[in-house]
Amino acid sequence: NVRAEPTTDSRVLFTVERGVPFKVIKRQGDWIHIEHADGEKGWIYHTLVW
């Protein structure tokens, strides 16, 4: 799940399937701010990144 803010209490914006590339914008603690190929941005927990 990719979330609006770097917390599990934040709403889910979209999901990313395994193998789909995305750009890392920045890291904040255990969270990574990403940008999907279609321009959508959000936060994903570091253990969910492969």
Helix amount: under 10%
- The rounded distance between the terminal residues' Cα atoms is 13 Å
Count of DSSP-assigned helices: 0
Strand order across the largest sheet: 3-4-5
Poorly predicted runs are: none
Major sheet attributes: 3 strands, antiparallel
Structural class: mainly beta
Oligomeric nature of the chains: single chain
How much of the sequence lies in strands comes to: over 45%
Query: Globular, elongated, flat, extended or rod-shaped: what is the shape?
Result: globular
Order of helices and strands: EEEEE
The number of E-state strands comes to 5
Structure summarized in a few sentences:
With 50 residues, this protein is mainly beta. It has one domain.
Account of the protein in words:
With 50 residues, the protein is mainly beta. It has one domain (2-48). The protein has no helices and 5 strands. The protein has strands spanning 2-3, 12-14, 22-28, 31-36, 41-45. Strands 3-4-5 form a 3-stranded antiparallel sheet, with no helix packed on it. It is globular and about 25 Å long. The two termini are 13 Å apart. 10% of the residues are buried.
Throw out a few tags for this protein.
two-stranded antiparallel sheet; 50 residues
Secondary-structure blueprint of this entry?
Elements lengths: L1 E2 L8 E3 L7 E7 L2 E6 L4 E5 L5
Pfam family, one: SH3_4
Protein name: SH3 domain-containing protein
